[in-house]
């Protein structure tokens, strides 16, 4: 049996669910086109730097278990399928309440933890709200004609309002990729501002769908515009594009977040999403955040993974750490 996890200076120390920190919401600012158009992205330098992150850092044993538990607390446990049902959502929510088996947590010397949120389609919000009653786990909804975001603008705004009324406290919106591809930054800013307003008190995550934006420079510019328009989080992908979260894209987005913080003093959150299914990749993402933004961003109010199957692999790795054996993946299925 493994020893209880102990804090070490070179690892994150997520022994328990972290206390909620109230970060000042991003109020946004006027569109600064000079700043936006000045944003560049040196693709080869970014790819070089991204290539060093997973390769250099090897986190083992108790440190690895600690990072994995942190990843769980920062996870938007997601189901976004056309065949979602209330029962599937209820099972997902049960998993969000108890994402890691109590016996494993006991062996690790850990208090109970939960995931950061549950993320569903609008129609599934009531089932998620009911299944999470009595917890502090937020329900996040993908609204605005997810994943393409091409339904009429008024309908997209109305969908946000309906999702909030149904009980979602986090709204993941999708931006209009065409505004980015045509360089119409004013239109992107206006769209994002209206969506932020429609969210009211619900926090808004802006999904850039980076795999469809054409270039890393566009990713940098779109990130800035969404933050200027008041996004609480910027998020890479819907999970439905042919290319979803990648390390180079993440580097560009988190450097835009750093730039925005340096200019405004406001911390905007980051959510890589789509195709992140391995525990090892989760640790690489956390290391990237730690190195580029610092420990403050390694909390669920500023960092989330959007993932439907990552939890399965994390639980398998934790079980291996505790027992020395791997269990079959189906034993950890979330839906
Ligand atoms: O926002 C979350 C993503 O849709 C999840 O993507 P995934 O199913 O590839 O983990």
UniProtKB/TrEMBL annotation:
InterPro entries: Aldolase_TIM, DeoC, DeoC/FbaB/LacD_aldolase. Its EC number is 4.1.2.4. Pathway: Carbohydrate degradation; 2-deoxy-D-ribose 1-phosphate degradation; D-glyceraldehyde 3-phosphate and acetaldehyde from 2-deoxy-alpha-D-ribose 1-phosphate: step 2/2. GO terms for biological process: carbohydrate catabolic process; deoxyribonucleotide catabolic process. One of its GO terms (molecular function) is deoxyribose-phosphate aldolase activity. SUPFAM superfamilies: Aldolase. CDD domains: DeoC (cd00959). The keyword DNA damage does not apply. GO terms for cellular component: cytoplasm. Keywords: Lyase, Schiff base. It is an enzyme of class 4 (lyase). It catalyses: 2-deoxy-D-ribose 5-phosphate = D-glyceraldehyde 3-phosphate + acetaldehyde. It comes from the Bacteria. Belongs to the DeoC/FbaB aldolase family. DeoC type 2 subfamily. This is Deoxyribose-phosphate aldolase. The gene is deoC.
